[in-house]
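Table 4 source record.
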Amino acid sequence: MSDKIYCDGISNIALVGGMVRLDLFTLSPTAKDKNGRPAMEFLTQLVMPPDSFLQGLGAMQSLVQQLKEKGVVRPLPQGEDAPEVKQ
């Protein structure tokens, strides 16, 4: 059996008890935040050992490079960090 989970993003990453925990969120179809945008709602937590997290990070970095080469995403200007997710 293959379960699929759709999420709009990761709201938090933490190391707790030796395990990496990623909080996934989805955007509400009905609730709005104070700016009138869809509100972020906690969806589920993905928990994995640090080695698995690093393996996944390597795969994501490889995909990011491919997306940049194809022009799907643009590189951030030098010295600029990715936007912080706020709840």
